[in-house]
Amino acid sequence: MPRKALMLSTNFWNIGAALIAGLALIFAVIYEDPVVQVRLLLLSALGTALIAGLARIAIPESIRWLVLRGRVREAELIVTRFAARSQSSGIVFELPLGQTIGLSVAFSRYPFRLLVLAIVTVAQYVTYGMLAYYVPYAPGFAFGIEQAPLVIFVSNLGASIGAFLLIPLIDRARRLSVLLAFLGDFITVIFIFLVHEMILIIAFYTLLFLNLVFSE
Predict the structure, then answer these.
(1) What's the CA gap between 157 and 151, in Å, rounded?
(2) Would you say residue 7 has pLDDT above 70?
(3) 197 backbone dihedrals φ, ψ, rounded to 5°
(4) Nearest to 152 by CA among 6, 20, 1, 61
(5) Are 177 and 166 within 8 A, CB to CB?
(6) N or C: which end of the chain has fewer CB within 10 A?
(7) What would the pLDDT profile of 138-171 be if each residue is shown by its tens digit?
(8) Between the CA of residue 15 and those of 22, 104, 144, 153, 203, what are the distances in Å?
(9) Residue 216 near residue 163 (C-beta atoms within 8 A)
(10) Burial, 188: exposed, middle or buried (Cβ in 10 Å; 0-12, 13-18, 19+)?
(11) Where are the beta strands (DSSP E) in 71-118?
């Protein structure tokens, strides 16, 4: 469950970026004036941030986070608020000793796992950043800089969906999911360069979407 929660929480960046890019495409169709487009986009982002802020106020703090910081009474009140009295009475607000380890201990115990994690993280962010935000502005991009909002939208849409597709696999077969992600990412990147050289725009966006699904 923690791995799934971590993936979904970081995936909201992709969802937000896809939403903003999608709104930019809609505003570009409705309004010809770029100044109006930018203003509407900024207002949309501000409105979304306001809604997210209000929602955050209504969401209670993490029970585990409160217990770790000694704020047990607040944790008890939150559990009492959302659970029936019979369910909350048997909960012990203590964490087992040795449940967490420091970074130095993790490096000494799991050096290979941390190395793999670092490689996966760097590769994922480099691939995502390069394809979503660098490619449409790169010299020689065959489809023109005006395609940038669509490239950003398709990329983040693929990354957003990829996280949800990976959830059923992440606990059952972590190694298999990582292998499939890297293999699919590698193959689709090769085909992206091929269709770009042949200026096949539909194939380009299809492969871009699939690449970010695997990349996520």
Answers:
(1) 10
(2) no
(3) -65, -30
(4) 20
(5) yes
(6) N
(7) 988 999 888 988 999 999 999 888 878 777 766 6
(8) 10, 34, 25, 10, 23
(9) yes
(10) buried
(11) none
Residue 103 CA: distances (Å) to CA of 30, 41, 74, 107, 110: 52, 41, 28, 6, 10
- pLDDT for 96 equals 57
Q: How many CB atoms sit inside 10 A of residue 30's CB?
A: 10
What the block records as the tokens of 73 is 């009474």
Quick check: 176 and 153 in contact, CB under 8 A?
no
Q: How far is CA 205 from the centre of its chain?
A: 20
Which amino acid, residue 119? Answer: I
* CB contact at 8 A, 21 and 149: yes
Sequence letter at residue 155: S
Q: What is the pTM of this model?
A: 0.72
pLDDT above 90 (res 210): yes
Phi, psi torsion values for 19, nearest 5 degrees: -65, -45
Q: pLDDT > 70: what percent of the chain?
A: 82
